[in-house]
Amino acid sequence: MALTKQPVDVNFAQGLDTKTDAYQVSVGKFLNLNNMVFDKAGKLTKRNGFANVTNIPNTQQTNLTTLNDNLIATGSNLYAYNAPNNQWLNRGNVQPIGLSVQPVVRTSTSQNSPDIAVAATGLACVVYQDSNGLSYYEIVDSATGQQTVNRTALPSSATNPRTTVFGNYFVVSYGWNNGGTPNISILAISINNPTILATVQVTSQFSAPGDAYDMIEFQSHLYFSWNGSDGTVKLRYIDTSFHLGSITSIAAQQATIISLTADSATQAVWLSFYQTAALTAFAAAYTPTLGTTLLPITALPTADLYFVAMTSAVKNGILNVFLDVNNNYSGVQMNYITTLTLTLAGVVTAQTTVCRSIGLASKAFMGPNNTIYMLAAYGTTPSPTNSNQCTYFLIDATGHIYMRLAYANGGGFVNNQILSSVNLYNGTYLVAYLFQDFLTTVNKGTANATGTPSNAIYTQTGVNLATITINSTTQYSSEIAGALHLTGGQLWEYDGAKPVEHGFHVYPENLTATWEITGGSMAAQPSGWVSGIPSYFYQICYEWTDAAGNLHRSAPSIPLPVVTTGSSNTNQVLLGVPALRLTDKTGDNPVRIVVYRWSVAQQVYYQVTSVANPIINNPNVDYIVFADGLSDAEILGNAILYTTGGVVENTAAPASNASALFKNRLVLVDAENPNLLWYSKQVIEAVPVEMSDLLTIYVAPTSGAQGSTGPITALSAMDDKLIIFKKDAIYYITGNGPDNTGANNDFSDPIYITSAVGCANPNSIVLMPNGLMFQSDKGIWILGRDLQTSYIGAPVEVYNSQTIMAATAIPATNQVRFILESNTTLIFDYFYSQWGTFSNTRGIAATLWKGAHTYLSALGQIFQETPGTYVDGSTPVLVSFTTSWLNVAGVRGYERFYYMLMLGTYFTPFKLNINLAYDYQVGQSQSILVSPDNYTPTFGSDPVFGSEAYYAGPGNVFQARIFPKIQKCQTFQVSISEVYDSTLGVAPGQGLSLSGMKMVVGVKKGYSPQRASKSFG
């Protein structure tokens, strides 16, 4: 019986569908659709190519953005593109740092001297001294803080505990009095079963329990160095069976501080120590068995200074020693870090300053790119203290700052020789630090007979664990106030000239003032003067003008009172002004130190320093002396202190993991408390982004949902709302926020939207007309403008396991593009609601530059979409697609496939490879090469004869009929891929567009035959 031929139209109006069962995808949808866009309904057109416009010389750049439409690449450094010269300019370091914080010790007492070791399982051993006089250890989960072994006391006289991982054990060392004899002992604690395995006495030749010693693990040996009771420095090791090696005596004098380090490249164990009596540091190097001296004791000449801590690290076979100098200025402790180096040949470099006003807070460690890092502390020990800003900073060996941690809540300088170890775990660095977890006022009382008040604040410290990711790929940028603001371990600002820390890490504190009765025009008894009561107050700001002309100002110093003497009008005040040492704002655009004065006669803080000849900051000194002798009349009308009238003071932004712009404000997620949002004052003309710790919003992790919704992962503005994404929930806030005094705040509380879905990847967020698209752990979703969520990425669900590296809405199109970690880009056309893919797009970051989609490859190549070209660099753009299974008679039907008709438009020479597959068997059953006859060779010479039109050519309509070898089947599938033929002598071109296909089939019956071998029952 003759079958009735039925035409089945395959139009191109539905895009990809990987969500539906592949056997049942409807006609018109595709299982694969590559390098085609949907400019016209029902038509597939080849996409544009991406030209390789330039290459960045540093392939470690991981982010791409723009400032004033100038191309910027960031990573370990910030590079700006000079397009006229095709040149990348290295503007300076902006190394992205990822930070998370976990509390690990909180008790009713205070802790100090923490150390931590992290095992490969993620368990961590924490040791510390307690204010109750005991030392403790505990085992915790480094990710959650959950205690596996509750805090356990070491022997009652134990002090200076340290810990490390040694084989399958946590080793806890401590000094103690064993029967009246000073010892160093260790506890070996099984990591897999955290119970004490054994107590091993390292030595009974210890000078005193609280004296200096150090411990490191290196190549299956555990090394110890300590002050011997016989007046010599000692060195020995323990092997993995906890057998003790022999003791090596090193020097004839005891050490005040000791540091051990090792170098696998040169197989050297380095010992460094400092002798207070000799005012000299020493170092020596030994083989791992300590049997051979590679470098005998060598003096490291240092200045006549008092050192309170030491650490060391080996770089390129050279020992780098870092010393914490205890300095003092007018009774104020002003520590700073110095360094010197030593080679195995005994060559010593001169002592140089790393950074002033900070001291060592951790051991030095080797990070990525062979860079030495360490944690440093600003401020003195928490109680008592002469600093209100005890803070930690991550610095390198040059003093460059990468991260600020625990601002105004840090534990301050170390108060003994213990420096916390830094552990490498899963590509991150973990370090324990002290955190002021309790603060209260106390009765001042009197410290001495003169009535000088004692410190009125009591602070208690706990132990936190910081997890630091150096060279994090998640650095987000926001362009506002004429500058680029970059997240990380600190908020960076790039103003087009140089990347620097945003704002100021610290404000001026510990000012000094001396009243002098000659040398100026200040009145000793201004109007309103009362004997014995301060007549004048000073406040000081650090100020800096960026390249966009915005004036940045620090928080003012705490007011400094001056009590006058005498009665003349010829007085002056000598101010000791602290220099700003912690800054990248140096060179030809340094920080200014600006002094403001208030008097009882003129109760406004007016500027007293010169505008024309300002006080220029000098980061290489501790204090700068400034003489103020101006009368009240001479400063009247000068600039007033910006906080006048109750304006909120500026403070430096925290380390941040995400950012967004909302209502002319910059909004940040606090990395130390990822449930806390910081927002800036409103940005107006000629004013920079100004942050304050008074302008924050707390988003409760359980609000509106059952259980915790996790930390904030991303932010984005949509219409009048700030959308707050968590991993498993979404919130929003509305309002314009407060004025600059903090008043009239109409920001709403965080409003819960859903906990059914959240954003797992900030790089995936993109705003398009229908709402915000984002990647969750369930795929690509959309938060509509009506605040409803839907699974818009269902058709491309097969790609859910891949991380989106960048998401971009493309101008002049209806496309949103998601660059995946593989060689694929997902495209979504929101007008037609169709999905497709691009290949050859190996991007790790993307932006819009000069209105065109531009992406960065892992090799440092910059590719930009270039209309009219059809190559990606040098790789031709070739189209391909795979239809659904065409089963006219339904699943398991039986049909005859007569032929296929194709209709399209010819543009340039092309060839198509058509593969036919049958009966749900994926793979090629028949391959057909289609070579269209539209191409007419050039006539006579290179130009096409007849100007723009082809000479006597067949036109530009592409039509083809395809005959299958196999006709009878259950179903069939068509795969078409373009083939570039270099023999045509032309460059890859647009090829063709396709308007549709028609399949001519006949239905034999509603079910297909079945072989007996496949039949059962």
Compact overview of the structure:
The chain contains 1 helix and 82 strands. It has 1017 residues and is an all-beta fold.
Written account of the structure:
By secondary structure, the protein is an all-beta fold. The protein has five domains: about 5-45 and about 880-1005, Galactose-binding domain-like (Jelly Rolls), CATH 2.60.120; about 100-470, Methylamine Dehydrogenase, Chain H; about 475-495 and about 650-755, no CATH class; about 505-635, no CATH class; about 760-835. Helix content is about 0%, strand content about 50%. It is built from one helix and 82 strands. The strands form 20 sheets. Strands 1, 3, 4, 76, 79, 80 and 82 form a seven-stranded antiparallel beta sheet that branches. Strands 46, 47, 48, 50, 51 and 52 form a six-stranded antiparallel beta sheet that branches. A five-stranded antiparallel beta sheet has the order 2-75-81-77-78, with no helix packed on it. The longest helix is centred in the middle third of the chain and has 4 residues, at about 630-635. The protein is globular. Residues about 445-455, about 935-940 and about 945-950 have low confidence and may be disordered.
